Amino acid sequence: MCVPSSPRIPNATGSIGTVVGTTFTGAQLFALMHPLIQSGSEVKIVVRMTGTGPVEMVARFTDGTQVQPRLIEPHTQGSSFDAPGDEWGVFYTFPKAGCWQLHFSRRSGTGDIWFIAAPPL
């Protein structure tokens, strides 16, 4: 599913842009994530998802490897990320280069973001 990766909507300044997730059961999923994620380095991804209840997240590699986030940080104060839903900052380290699926679930919705992690420089 990584080719193509999840679509990215560029912002007015041409920086990070918003990634649009594929969702199920009526949810909406958006993320701010750097366009170049390197395996082996920790990254912060800002996620907004509609729905109710707590959010659960897992990253899955094409060979079945699963990685849990190191930290899920609710963003309850003001934010400049203009997308629907509740917001979290999520910290991940992806141990392998290649295709990753970020899977998000709440009581009333699930969604996925697909991307390719680059090898370390």
| Oligomeric form | single chain
Low-confidence stretches: none
Largest sheet: number of strands, sense, barrel closure: 6 strands, antiparallel
- Shape descriptor reads globular
Mean pLDDT: 90
Fraction of residues in H or I helices = under 10%
What percent strand?
over 45%
Radius of gyration: 14 Å
Terminal-residue CA separation? 25 Å
Write the H/E string, N to C. Answer: EEEEEEEEEEE
Number of DSSP strand runs: 11
The largest sheet has its strands arranged as 1-2-4-5-9-8
Structural class: mainly beta
Q: What is the number of helical segments per DSSP (H or I, 4+ residues)? A: 0
For this entry, give a set of tags.
single chain, 121 residues, mainly beta
Give a short summary of the structure:
The chain has 121 residues and is mainly β.
Protein architecture, described:
This protein has 121 residues and is an all-beta fold. The chain has strands at 8-9, 18-20, 22-24, 29-32, 42-49, 56-61, 66-67, 71-74, 86-93, 98-106, 109-117. It has a six-stranded antiparallel beta sheet, with no helix packed on it. A hairpin with a 2-residue loop joins strand 10 (98-106) and strand 11. The model has no long low-confidence stretch (mean pLDDT 90).
Layout of helices and strands, plus pairs?
Elements: E1 8-9, E2 18-20, E3 22-24, E4 29-32, E5 42-49, E6 56-61, E7 66-67, E8 71-74, E9 86-93, E10 98-106, E11 109-117
Antiparallel strand pairs: 1-2, 2-4, 3-11, 4-5, 5-9, 6-7, 6-10, 8-9, 10-11
